């Protein structure tokens, strides 16, 4: 009978632990100085660390600055619009702001292998920094807009600071530019934006749905702010660690259809002249881990303000995913890069022109009908107003006789992840008693557009067959 061995007695019985670095303590870049940081089992000194960070940052960002990605090497860098930086006050966004300042706004010498032939010229005419304040829905949370504004002004005087509140998503009076870009809002609400926001959040069934809804509101607010500032690029300070957490959390909540948009996406809108414009959402730090960002902030003396994070409790999928990956990264540093590379290979079967009304991401049509076909329901879940099955009425009814779902409803224009968030069953038995749930401004606008298009279609159909209809007198 074979024995596993006793590690206390036999020296060869236990497996040797892999060292933190592969070879030695010397920097793998210059091979002269002693290393100061270990990045994925590779040792780098402090002098080689800063060029490595700048190279990874520019290699991810610069190919997407020009309207045509193939021209960034031959004709330099020149964007078609302004730049909007999403600053949350956290570590990644603070490092991103510092990299933008030192790379494109501060005088520097042209380095060997620089992809920008114009040297230190800035590709954007104006640079805006936007901060989304979510302290309105967090009890006892301090307002960090002033420290964030001081952080921006301390870095650069050429950047323009913009503050946006999360409740602005429900404020029709403070979004005049949004109505000019899309369509005038036809519906109105008597409640204040903050009350509407709290009602909207309280209507969600689970803590995971609340966290996902807050992230979706922040993201769409940033997109509309980019449209109002005529920005062609929206930069987010998502590090490689945060990206891996977002990827796993999104897949766990049913967002696999739009997994490519977690890394990079292009949001399309129409301006005041009804011309289609594109905002490229880029995460330049998607190849830089949270550890490297922390070392950059420490060695550069950045005072990170810190961002608000909604605490969904222990049952929140996002919090559970964050704790799992952060704990796994300590012993296996290549975990986050493996997750990002694997998810980058995923593609959907065919394209779609449909966008979710809530998160504004590509959505797969027929989500509501598909979920109804695979759902197992009990008779207690049936509302009195719904049509019960045939055997409950004691009379057989064919499935074709049941009323079809409304194709112009909001549920039919939602992606699978948002639809699941609204229809998830809470383990605490949380039931929404309110019939009228306030909607974000862009969702009301989209509903108005769909209703107007449907009316125009009916009128055009009436005019087409008007010559073939008989009068009522005849």
TrEMBL record:
Species, as recorded: Agaricus bisporus var. burnettii (strain JB137-S8 / ATCC MYA-4627 / FGSC 10392) (White button mushroom)
Domain of life: Eukaryota
Biological role stated in the UniProt entry: Plays a central role in 2-thiolation of mcm(5)S(2)U at tRNA wobble positions of tRNA(Lys), tRNA(Glu) and tRNA(Gln). May act by forming a heterodimer with NCS6 that ligates sulfur from thiocarboxylated URM1 onto the uridine of tRNAs at wobble position. Prior mcm(5) tRNA modification by the elongator complex is required for 2-thiolation. May also be involved in protein urmylation.
Similarity comment text for this entry: Belongs to the CTU2/NCS2 family.
InterPro entries: CTU2 (IPR019407), Rossmann-like_a/b/a_fold (IPR014729)
Gene Ontology annotations for the cellular component aspect, listed alphabetically: cytosol
GO biological process terms, semicolon-separated: protein urmylation; tRNA wobble position uridine thiolation
Coiled coil (residue ranges): none
Protein's name according to its UniProt entry: Cytoplasmic tRNA 2-thiolation protein 2
Main location: cytoplasm
Gene3D superfamilies: HUPs (3.40.50.620)
Listed PANTHER family: CYTOPLASMIC TRNA 2-THIOLATION PROTEIN 2
Molecular functions (GO terms): nucleotidyltransferase activity; sulfurtransferase activity; tRNA binding
Alphabetical list of Pfam families matching this protein: CTU2
Keyword line: Cytoplasm, tRNA processing
Pathway assigned to this chain's UniProt record: tRNA modification; 5-methoxycarbonylmethyl-2-thiouridine-tRNA biosynthesis
